Each structure stands twice: as structure tokens, then as C-alpha cells.
What we know:
By secondary structure, the protein is mainly β. The protein has helices spanning 30-35, 37-45, 248-251, 447-450, and strands at 85-93, 101-113, 123-132, 138-147, 152-162, 167-174, 181-188, 192-202, 225-230, 242-243, 261-263, 269-272, 275-282, 293-295, 297-300, 307-314, 321-329, 342-347, 359-365, 374-377, 381-382, 387-389, 399-405, 409-414, 417-423, 437-445, 462-473.
Amino acid sequence: MKLYPVPIQAPLISALFATLLLSGCGGGDSATDTDTAAQAEAAAATPDTVKAIAAAPESTTTSYTVVPDEKVLNNLFADGLNNWTVGDAVLVNSTQRVGGKSLNVGWRALQTFTNGTLVPNASYTVKFRARNENATGVTTVAMKFQIPPYNEAFRTYKTTVTGTAWKDYEFEFTAPVYTKGELSVLANGSRSVVDTVSMKMRSAIATTEPKETPSGSIVPAGGYTMVFNDEFNGTTLNRAKWHTRMIYNSGTTDRMHDEKQRYRDNDNHRVANGVLSLVARKVSETDPNGINYESGMIRSDWTSRYGYYEARVKMPAGVGVWPAFWLNSDVSATGRLSWPPEIDIFEYVNNGVEDTSDMIHSNVVTMDRKPSQVFYSDPAFNTQYTFWRAPFNFSDDFHVIGAEWTPTTVTMYVDGQKIYTRAATWNYDDGTAGGPAHILLNFAVGGAWAGRHGIDDAAFPQEMQVDWVRVYQKP
């Protein structure tokens, strides 16, 4: 439970801090609780520990029929500027196609796509041929998906044109469930010349990769197949899979409520030896609001509902840290971005007194903000304050923490040990279905909860280490 989007809404918190922040924990409604008697019986009968399912399929892909029709209208500019909205852009004779036309752009040219023009969850390739007139100029070609009422971008895929020589460029993306958007050419520092623009459907972009340590997954029984993962191999974060800011304010939101960090890309996402390190460090002593830290976070471009979500993580040490692994509602098929719902797979808060390094909080946030019915809980899980106390410190080693999410329940696991099963629904406040979920892992610092007893600056820089993230679903 990390999210209280603008306008700030009542957070879920440890009841220890109910006088400092706004609301208590939980979610779910009476109808959900009534409808889940079968889950209660099944949860009570489920062993406390599950085993790794070595035979679980390794990957799957989205299934759809590829229709490679051209989606860009008047893509060769044969019909003048029809279908294009331009600012300081004119047609010129093409030097690449005899008798053809190119578009010379001094500011911008764009083409809009209404919702439904593209197929949700299908993948596309954008190709174009272009050059700059000035060697110091940079031209950006982007596909932006936008939500009403102000066409705020919630997904942006782009590439840049550099240099004065003609080159062929391309980029790929998978369309979200709400597909209203615009394809734009934006010149900066130089006029640019674009000869052709094309966007066509392609086969599904893979969302899985080989698992480096397949025995590490702890997948509940039931025929699960892996549908998304990142093993963090290589040397850099895969930006095709992950964004590094919250989805709000055109994907630029870099902190929530009273946290004392901003999410940045100043070496805050280190990838080495098969591990992603989200690095937090103190960068200032003088911020008037005490926001003196920079840190890292990742938000998945991939979205879905239900399944088993897990990550193998090692927590940071030191007082004042607040990393989390959670699911938040993305833009819905109707173009709505709202909160709740939310699932907090874990929040690790170390304020050194009430919350310590052997504890993690876990909960769900649903439409009425009330604590949901608990069908099963481990004796070490405090249902009132939603924390589990482990027989170890989470900062000493890696642990696999996951949650099995169904339309009516969430079951949380640590290293295969079942911690709780509780009621959960994925609805907005008005009872309509929430958008598909994206995955977040973030390393927050301070605030009224984690920083209640101060922040141990001597312990920084700190890292939240993520060995891998994996998601499994049933066919």
C-alpha cells in the first residue's frame, strides 16, 4: 500500500500510526465476504507451505491473429497533409522516392488514433525514414497513449533521429487496453525531414525470458504458466519492460504523500550479476521539505489481472527505509485511471521501534477501505496491524515473497510459507471493475511511518536488491 494518488487519499498504514496518517487497513465489501465461503474452506485446508513446481511451463505469448494493415493514414504524404496535424511543417519533394513527397518539420507533425483503432494487447512496429538538417538537432518520434479529459499521456514509446544522413528507424510497443493516442514527430534544434511513416501489427512481443534459477520459484499448484518475468541479466534495466516513475502526471510522479525521496535515474537502477539494485542515497541537506534523498523504482509496462506474482528480494538495512512490492490499477479499457484498488504484496518498514527488520506488512486496498475478511492467517501474522514477524531479518538474505491473486481472494507467501488468505475485489470506488494491474517495486525513504524515529543517514547509500520478478497465470 504505497499509493495515494492526487488528490491524496487516505493511506493504509500500520494502526500504530493511525493518529499520524488518515485511515486504517483493509478492503473488500460484505458481498465479497459472503461470496467467498468456498475460498475460506479451501484456505483452511491448504498446507502452510507449498513446494516449487519445477514442471511449470516456462513461458507463453499473447494469442491473436496478426493483421498487418497500415495504421498510419496518408503515410507517404501522397495526399498532401490530409490526416496530419502540423505546426511549422511543409511538404517537399522526396529525395528517396522518385515523384514522392517528404515532410519537412520545423516544430511538429502528428496523427491521432481514436480508441479502438489499435487492438488492445496486440504488438506493433513503427518504422520511418528520416534525417535532421542540422547535425546538432534531435528529433523525437513517439507513440503516446492518452486518457481524457486532457489527453494526459500514460504510455509513451519513442526513438530519436540524430545526424543529417538518411536512416531507417523503428520502435515497437504493445498497445494498452485503452488505445486512444497520437503518433508525433517533434523537431528540436533543427528542422527534420521524414520520408515515410508506417505502423503495422506484428506478432506478440515476448514478455518472458529464460529463468536463470528455475528452482527458485515457489508456485502454488493449479496449472500455472509463466506469463511475465525479468531475471535482470545484462548490465542495464530493460526499459521496454519497466518505467521508472509512477503512472500519474504523464508518468512523471516521483514521490507519494510524505516520503523524503524522489525517484530518479541517477544510477538508481543498477543491474549486475543477475540482480537489480534500487539505490537510495542522500543528495542534499537543505531541501525545505526534507526531501533530501534520491532513489529508484520500477513500474511494469505489462499489465494484467490475477495470477501468482513473486519476487526474490533482499531488503535494505538502516532505520528510515520503506521498500515495497505491490500491484496498482492501470488505465482501464474505458480510459479511467483511478485508485483504489491496490494489493500490497509487501511493505518493509524499518523505523527501529514499532516496525523492525524482521517484519513485513501486507494487505489489500479495495473500494470501501474496510478490513477484509481473513480466511486463514499464520500465527505470526497480526491481522489487526497487517504485519508478519519472521524468525529472521529480511535485510540479511534474499527471500521469495509472493501473492496468489484471484477474483475474490489474495493469498500471501514468504519462502513458500502461506501467511494469510483474505477477501479481495478489484473494483473502483463506484463498484466497477478496476483497470488491469501493473507491478511496482520501489524504495521509499522516510515519512511519518518509516521516518517516525528519524533516518539513519550513516547507513546510506542503501540498496533494495531484486533477483527476479515472475508472474504466473492459469490458461
